[in-house]
Amino acid sequence: MAGRRYHRGMLDLSRLRALHAVSVHGSVAGAAAALGYTPSAVSQQIAKLERETRTTLLERRGRGVALTEEARHLADTARELLAIVERAETTLEERRGQPSGLLTVAAFASAARGLLPGVLAELAARHPALDVRLTEVDPHLSVDLVARGVTDLAVAHDWDIAPLPAPEGIEQAVIGDDHCDLVVPAGHPFTARAVIRRTDLGGERWVCQPPGRVCHDWLVRTLRTAGHEPDIAHVAEENHTIVALVAAGLGVAVVPRLGTGALPPGAVAVPLEPGPVRRLYALWRTGAARRPAITAAVRTLRAHWTARALGAATAPEGPLPGDSASVRGSGEAARQ
Fold first, then answer.
1. Do residues 287 and 90 make contact, with C-beta atoms less than 8 angstroms apart?
2. Could you report the per-residue pLDDT of 183-233, keeping only the tens digit for each?
3. Which homologous superfamily does the CATH classification assign to the domain defined by 178-277?
4. Which secondary structure element, helix H or strand E, spans residue 110, and what is its range?
5. pLDDT tens digits for range 246-274
6. What is the DSSP string of 65-116?
7. How far apart are CA 217 and CA 208, in angstroms?
8. I want to staple 188 with a disulfide (CB 3.0 to 4.6 A). Which of 168, 178, 184, 209 is the partner?
9. Domains of the chain, residue spans
10. Under CATH, to which class is 13-77 assigned?
11. Residue 232, C-beta contacts closer than 8 angstroms, at least 6 positions apart
């Protein structure tokens, strides 16, 4: 092979992982957040890969960067290599029979705050050889992050009006149902009533998440179905902000219990019938289903959900990762 020089270690796996993350997230900053690195560390990895491959991989595009055609081909190769590595690591961990190695977890904000801290602490205490790393992500991103191999396990949710997508190669298990309450200011007339119906909700000023979020879409659809046009006075991303605005007497809100925790003085939860319910799931790739780390994490998620008594009287039934009856990501509905 005269005329060609090969460099030992030319395709370094950690650098390929960085390129793959930039490809998935569309930016160096997004890749850094997913990998737990600083943006400068990701940029350095890409720069080293460019030198070693003698190829330009990233081009400036406005304020951001774009992958060159060569980089996209290399990112596809990286995805295949990372999948091979995952299968090998899964086999080794399965043979050891103990949860070990790195387990990356993505969760939406209220689960990351209200459920995951206790879960991660228990996993760390029970399985010292297991290194679990959590990233808080927008809920609509988590399924894609698992499918693309960016994260090993995701905690996601869906509502009846927005079922969770189930792409091929992704398995899922139900963690539990998160019931929602109507939260009103103390002294509101609703606090004197035994139950509130959806038809009673007209004429209220609402505090809600922004358009495009499932909570917002549920509220608008529900009130319009009941014959009311919602008066959304205040918009906030975080459930804690929404509850604080309600406690200040500025409106009413429908909030999932996991998103509220203990209500502050001035805010009261009243029963809404029928009230919305969002279902929480754990998702993982089919190729990693045999990992003891995945099984331990899902089992611990379910146990902590039950312990919080957030509408779950007993642990959710259903298969665990690796069971032949696991819910398949083939478009089959997760709800039974």
1. yes
2. 999 999 999 998 899 889 889 999 999 988 888 888 888 889 888 898 999
3. Periplasmic binding protein-like II (3.40.190.10)
4. helix 109-114
5. 999 999 999 988 877 789 999 999 988 88
6. EEE-HHHHHHHHHHHHHHHHHHHHHHHHHHHHTS--EEEEEEE-HHHHHHTH
7. 10
8. 184
9. 13-77, 178-277
10. mainly alpha
11. 206, 207, 208, 216, 219
